[in-house]
Amino acid sequence: MAVIVGMVLLTIGLAGLCIQFGPNALAFLADVPRFHVWVDKAGVWSRVAFAIANVAQIVVTFLPGEPLELVAGYAFDFLVFLVLGTPKDLLTYVAGLSKSPLWRIVTIATVGRIPSIVSSTALAGALGEGEYLVAVLVAAVTVVLALVSVLAYQQISY
């Protein structure tokens, strides 16, 4: 019960922060040249802040990682999340509790996430650069690959 109450309070707190600071943050992010100047001006500290946000996303496992992937592409042009071995989500932790060998867990957690990481960062980078056709193409290819993956999984599972 305490965990549920804590999660509800955390959600309410995050919603409050979004209401309070969200509009200004979105306006700042929408001004792409201004945002890139800010990231460049912050230098290494922008990367440190991003790393801290990534760690927070990993520790608070119910927070999705995709927004951080989008931010990585938008702020740093694709490169931050292409580092192999970056833990992505709760499945990485749960896999560690399984009887699967460590090499298999590491391979799946690393290689299996690459397409999502690449598509998310490419999409955000294209949007950030105003290359809307490229963004639409990346999104379309991602959707097609996701559908093919679901169909392949269904064939393998049955």
Computed CA radius of gyration, to the nearest angstrom: 18 Å
Poorly predicted runs: 79-87
N to C succession of SSEs: HHHHHHHH
**Count of helical stretches:** 8
| Overall geometric form | globular
Structural class: mainly alpha
Mean pLDDT: 76
CA distance, first residue to last residue? 38 Å
Q: Which range does the strand content fall in?
A: under 5%
Helix content bin:
over 70%
User: Can you summarize the main beta sheet?
Assistant: none
Beta-strand segment tally: 0
Structure commentary:
With 158 residues, this protein is mostly helical. It has helices spanning 2-30, 32-42, 44-59, 66-76, 90-96, 102-111, 114-128, 132-157. Helix content is 79%, strand content 0%. Helix 4 packs across helix 7.
